[in-house]
Structures are given as C-alpha cells and as structure tokens.
Input
Amino acid sequence: MIRSLLLAACLVGVSAPALAQEAEDDFAPPPIVMSSEHPDEEAVEPYERSNAHAGATPFEGAAMFEAFHGAEGVSRIVDDMVARSIADPRISPIFAASDLVRLRRTLKEQFCYMLGGGCDYSGMAMASSHADLGLQSADMGALVENLQHAMAAEGVPFATQNRFLGKLAPMKGDVVTR
Output
C-alpha cells in the first residue's frame, strides 16, 4: 500500500511539470485591437474628451509656447523625455506595457495645450489614466528629471522650465497613488 502511494506520488510529481508546460503552450494573449481614429495606437475604452483633463489651465499668450520652440520643439522634448524614461532603469518598467505611440501623442497635445499653443488635449484625465500604474513619488521625480534634461537639450531657458514645472506639479496628487 505504501509502495503504491509512493509510486503514485512520483507519477504526479513527474507529470505536473508536463501538464504545466502544456498549459503554458496553450496560453495565447488576447489580440491587440488598434484604434480606428489613430491607426498606429492601441484602441482604448471610450471616455469623455476635454481640455480640462490636461490637468492644468494653459498659460496666457504665446510666449511660453515660443520659448519651447513651438510645436516642433514640444515634439522633440516629448520624444526625448520618453526615450530617456524608457532607458531609465528607475522607471523603465512602468513604460514596458504602455502604448508609446499614444503616450507621445497625448503628451505632445497636453504640453502644447498647457503652453498656450492652441492645441486641444484628447487624452484621459490624469487620475484615471494613472490609476492602475501604482506610481510613487520617486517615479514622478525620475520623470521630472528626464523632462528637465529634455527641456535643457532643447535650449528652453531655466526660468521657463521652472514655470512649466510649476504648472505640472499640482498633478502629483492625481498621478502618484502609492
């Protein structure tokens, strides 16, 4: 009897990894559905669009937008900041599952809107778009450092950088969740 139980236990132990391997082989992630509005981006659940979701009101006039070298400068800054963030070991895992095409587009819209460039922001509200990321203060600090490096590389004056960062700072309460 004991011998039969030992034999059965051995058989279960040997076959369990094989069963686990079969289950892994059968796993297929759900297909990625692409957006019909922005074909290079993954589709998202519908949501209300509003400039109020940008997280701050825009600066008056065009001086801030011009200091960032217009739409082309904003585009370079966002691309640089995202590239630095993807390469930054402190925060790169946060971006691993992100739709980087959508992220870049909505950041460019957000920055353009806030800088008084006349753009509309089509992204989600800050709280809802960051709710499931589990961001900490250190994560936001690393992102801000990457943004500062990107603005400096674009030649945005230091005082102008600080004015912009002052607009972004209140969003911390909506973005940092841990």
